[in-house]
Design a protein that fits this description.
heterodimer; A: 166 residues; alpha/beta; 4 helices; B: alpha/beta; Rossmann fold; five-stranded parallel beta sheet; 9 strands
Amino acid sequence: MHLTDPNALIDRMAAAMRPLLRPDCALVGIHTGGVWVMDALAERLEVELPRGVLDISFYRDDFSRIGLHPEVKPSRIPFEVEDRHVLLIDDVLYTGRTVRAAMNLLFDYGRPASIRLAVLVDRGGRELPVCADFVGQALDLGPDEHISLQRDAAGMLSFIMKGAGA
Amino acid sequence: MNGNLQLNADGSLRHLLTLDGLPARILTQILDTAESFISVAEREVKKVPLLRGKAIFNLFFEPSTRTRTTFEIAAKRLSADVVNLNIATSAQSKGETLLDTVANLSAMQADMFVVRHASSGAAHLIARHVEPHIHVVNAGDGRCAHPTQGLLDMFTIRQHKGAFHNLRVAIVGDLLHSRVARSQIHALTTLGCPEVRIVAPRTLLPRDVDHLGVHVHYRMDTGIKDCDVVIMLRLQNERMQGALLPSPQEYFKYWGLTPDKLRHARPDAIVMHPGPMNRGVEIDSDVADGKHSVILNQVTYGIAVRMAVMSLLAGG
């Protein structure tokens, strides 16, 4: 399986998004990898848009089974969500449960005009009817394969693969 | 007190009964989680769905409006169903035992008990007898412990001072009757505060003061000198037996925190008080309402801290 360099994927995503951006848009990254992708996208988008961060720990659907995530970070939405066109950003789209939780969380800040989803990697395996509007790369990974994003001290992004095909 | 009763086999929190014996890892986890709940209170919708479908029973065998209310708000912001029982005026006055009361409420599908009782050890007793899926939070028992108050005090200090390792903290006033002070001392010591002082008249010091690992001062001026944090305790008039004090006026003269006395502390010192305050007894209004005071912040933080405790318990 060929993995493209995440920085090249982000270049392409930024190019696809640029024509659709408007002044009442905002970027919202899902903690942690989604925030890295959001920051990298923002650098390339050439317009200054408000940015927010979501930690979905309080909205997970597996809380009663596995409890609270050990490192919850505060969510931070420093703008009015009401009537805003939100670009929701994550690193890897898998079951769709994180996106479901993030949308519920976002609505507790207000009613956005629209939400579009941008993901660096769509790895398949959806359990909910969730579909991304902007996809860096689509992969078909099995349930025992895992891909995640990491960021080094210099801010460079790279993928880590674990499991069967790695 | 049995510290292990509080922890599951994997080291996670099962009940919160006392801060005594709780490792720094758990204290820090609670404070970190509370920080995330602070941001929830700033939103349009101040609720999260974490404890949806859970039933939390506030069992108050002793009246306390503020503590009960903040627990209730915290539970509701976690989307739990809350039932308030003022048992001082209920079944127990008809002769039912504590454990019978709890067994009956367990049969009503309770998931968590928040217990306030005038007798030390009441929450421990309940925790020892509940079914495995039920969690117990001590909301103050006798002179023993008031762990969520201790935690919210730690949260307040961390929010305003950043860290504990370079702080000088003075706890001032009626330590003899205070369950808050013990929780504070345990938490400060565990979190690495290098100098905890207690400042009190000899008649209001507990007998085991030498075992608490604190510096004891018998004068206000030297006691709060160069302190970063001054925690005033409430003079517990209703718990006083005999002549421990001359008069509230005289107490205020020597032990009341006035702007003049506060000048001995550091210029950026914060002043805390667990409430309810006796103005003109342990604290002067000019201090209580002044720029050093973080007393109302404590109340706000108390909700976030209780949300953190309840969500960590229910998820454990």
